[in-house]
Amino acid sequence: MVDHRRLGRELELFHADPLSGAGLPIWLPAGAAARHSVEEYVRELERQAGYQHVYSPPLGKRELFELSGHLGYFADDMFPVLRLSADDEFVLRPALCPHHALVYRARGRSYRELPLRIAELGGMYRPERSGVLGGLSRVRAISLNDAHNFCAVEQVGAEVAEILDLIRTAHAALGVRPAGFRLSLRGPGEKYVGDDEMWNRAENLLREALSGLPYVEAAGEAAFYGPKIDIQILDGAGRESTISTIQLDFDKPARFDLSYTDSSGGRSRPVMVHRSLVGSMERLFAYLIEVHSGAFPAWYAPVQVQVLPVGPEQFDAAEAFRRDCVRAGLRAELVGDGSLGARVRVAAQRRVPYAAVLGAREVAAGQVALRLRDGRAVEPMAAPDALRMIAGIVAAHSAELLP
Ligand SMILES: [Zn+2]
């Protein structure tokens, strides 16, 4: 595997500027286009699965993070408190859960609404030490694919199973190949909330969800509020990190005094399931760049079609085809300068999945000749058919370049 930092520079996906700050990379247009497609895909996958999306601010009042337990248990992993005045202090949030707990209790809830799945692709901050920062794999400003599923205790098993299914679907579309499942448990020497009964109950629920799957147990890797299932990946250097996670939390619902009206008219406390299907956009792309060597599946390739007129006489027809591609929702560019061979080579080096060549013969017949980035050449086909084929591959989130 190639280091994503080098490829990120070569393919102009992101830019690390000392003036922006260590761990604060900037997404360049090509990287942003790919990320945008991935975000849209995940949002739609979640929407289909009954998630509701919200926006919440990346900072909040100190009292919110005192209530959530973050300042008591997690302060070492947070930026120092921002102080406007003695009674006006703010925290750059290290997690989205406190805001989503506020979404839950913005009004009364009934058992009929559960599981209530609140999702957000949201910003959060961690003061990683500058020595460990590099590229996208460890950053200080994190864009997390996050959700909090509030459910009744008896719904937890089915909810976790459904989340595991969604994770598998997302991994298959993106080309993520997990290295394994991990059950992350409490360990000695760390601070954890809650009592043994709560932890045992949560652990047993997760063990059940994992039954039949190969997994390892890792002491000391739990969140401070509960155990979790982590899905691990390996980077190019063989280092392991977590890409997807499912965490059970009995603690925050109590801290925020969350409740719902149950079917007998009484008040019950929901369980909070924290989950991320694909982790942060930063770590996800660090991984995707390496595992695909920059050659993303067509649906999130920064440029999907490079249109290449053989000579100036084909320029108008090429431009018309490019416009048709863009109108069909594809990202297409026209490159007219240089020899055709050189342009096909550059398109492949830039990992553009499809080069559409238009020579005199193709234009006369209303056709284009597709050249794939892996060197394959497709027989010339009618321009609308080529466009329909590519748009179909993109819409299907296929990993293949041909049907
Ligand atoms: Zn959370």
Explain what you see.
Keywords: Aminoacyl-tRNA synthetase, ATP-binding, Cytoplasm, Ligase, Metal-binding, Nucleotide-binding, Protein biosynthesis, Zinc. Belongs to the class-II aminoacyl-tRNA synthetase family. Its EC number is 6.1.1.3. This is Threonine--tRNA ligase. By secondary structure, this protein is an alpha+beta fold. The chain folds into 2 domains: about 5-290, BirA Bifunctional Protein, domain 2, CATH 3.30.930; about 300-395, Rossmann fold. It has helices at about 5-10, 30-50, 60-65, 70-75, 95-105, 155-175, 195-210, 250-255, 280-290, 315-325, 340-350, 360-365, 385-395; strands at about 15, 25, 50-55, 60, 80-85, 90, 115-125, 140-150, 180-185, 215-220, 230-235, 240-250, 260, 265-270, 270-275, 305-310, 330-335, 355-360, 365-370, 380. The strands form 5 sheets. Strands 3-7-8-15-12-11-9-10 form an 8-stranded mixed sheet, sandwiched between helices. A 5-stranded mixed sheet has the order 17-16-18-19-20, with helices on both faces. Helix 6 (about 155-175) packs across helix 7 (about 195-210). The longest helix is centred in the N-terminal third of the chain and has 20 residues, at about 30-50. Zinc ion binds next to loops.
